[in-house]
């Protein structure tokens, strides 16, 4: 049995999945399986997967669910994972030829450490350069997600490979009629219990699409305010630095207002009363500005 499952949530990306599939076919180590979770696509994704299942030299499993957003697709897919590791790879991205080989070697080296939730590598751009800022030493390091990514200010996106049992221990929270959630809400929660191994090596290639989640983040946030409130609350209760907490205090109130939560409710349900009070006025000003901007641009709340 292999140690690695590549988990890909997808929605109407039939024409892009072939690039990821080709990069999987080019892997130097084929000891992995690919699980594709179709989040309610209305294109021909199912037919495409059926075609490549017949000719791939690695196992491909396909599951389809009602549209609910990437985080719900990840929750759905995790229940079918049987391997020790889960590598979340988006449907419009690709892997370097040695990605699986690299992960397998790292796992063999550190698999007896019971205080880590996974391994983190770098993402690169197809035309060269990095998606994550520099900061991970050449020989790697062991820290929590909060210590490395937040407090060291190593920003951008990385390529994280998670222990399956950790993803099942910390599922993504789901909110009715909300289809977007920042995935780091779970990574921050894991930091309370686990560390990670970070490595200065690119194994994942990304180029963000104009219609992708990243380029439309604020619009998605406003349409999924309860998830944003929950994420901000997790940040406020973490060991992150003061700058991150101030930003989260603002987001907690801004998106709380978009979620139509009463101010006294928000105040009661945060442990950071001082930050709440300090950020009250600027949060209100930003909320009014964003509300006006997005009403003009036609953004609707769900």
Automatic annotation (TrEMBL):
Classification via Pfam families: Glycos_transf_2
Domain Glycosyltransferase 2-like: 5-130
Entry-linked Gene3D superfamilies: Spore Coat Polysaccharide Biosynthesis Protein SpsA, Chain A (3.90.550.10)
Coiled coil: none
Alphabetic keyword roster: Transferase
Domain of life from the UniProt record: Bacteria
InterPro entries: Glyco_trans_2-like, Nucleotide-diphossugar_trans
Alphabetized GO MF terms: hexosyltransferase activity
Protein known as: Glycosyltransferase family 2 protein
Organism per entry: Eubacterium ventriosum
């Amino acid at each position: 049995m292999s140690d690695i499952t590549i988990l890909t949530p997808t929605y109407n990306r039939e024409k892009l999945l072939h690039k990821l599939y080709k990069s999987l076919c080019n892997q130097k180590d084929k000891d992995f399986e690919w699980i594709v979770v179709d989040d309610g696509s209305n294109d021909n994704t199912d037919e495409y997967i059926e075609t490549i299942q017949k000719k791939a030299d690695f196992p491909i499993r396909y599951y389809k669910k009602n549209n609910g957003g990437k985080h719900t697709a990840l929750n759905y897919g995790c229940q079918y994972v049987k391997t020790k590791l889960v590598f979340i790879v988006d449907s419009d991205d690709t892997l370097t030829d040695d990605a699986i080989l690299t992960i397998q070697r790292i796992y063999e080296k550190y698999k007896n450490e019971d205080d880590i939730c996974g391994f983190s590598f770098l993402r690169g751009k197809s035309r060269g350069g990095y998606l994550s800022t520099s900061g991970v030493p050449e020989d790697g390091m062991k820290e929590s997600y909060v210590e490395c990514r937040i407090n060291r200010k190593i920003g951008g996106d990385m390529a994280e490979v998670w222990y399956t049992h950790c993803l099942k221990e910390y599922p993504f929270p789901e909110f009715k009629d909300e289809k977007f959630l920042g995935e780091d809400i779970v990574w921050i929660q894991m930091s309370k219990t686990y560390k990670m191994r970070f490595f200065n090596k690119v194994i994942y290639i990304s180029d963000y699409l104009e219609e992708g989640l990243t380029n439309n983040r604020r619009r998605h946030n406003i349409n999924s305010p309860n998830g944003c409130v929950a994420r901000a609350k997790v940040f406020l209760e973490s060991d992150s630095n003061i700058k991150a907490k101030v930003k989260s205090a603002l987001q907690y109130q801004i998106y709380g207002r978009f979620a139509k939560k009463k101010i006294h409710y928000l105040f009661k349900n945060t442990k950071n009363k001082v930050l709440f009070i300090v950020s009250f006025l600027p949060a209100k000003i930003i909320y009014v500005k964003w509300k006006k901007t997005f009403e003009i641009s036609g953004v609707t709340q769900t």
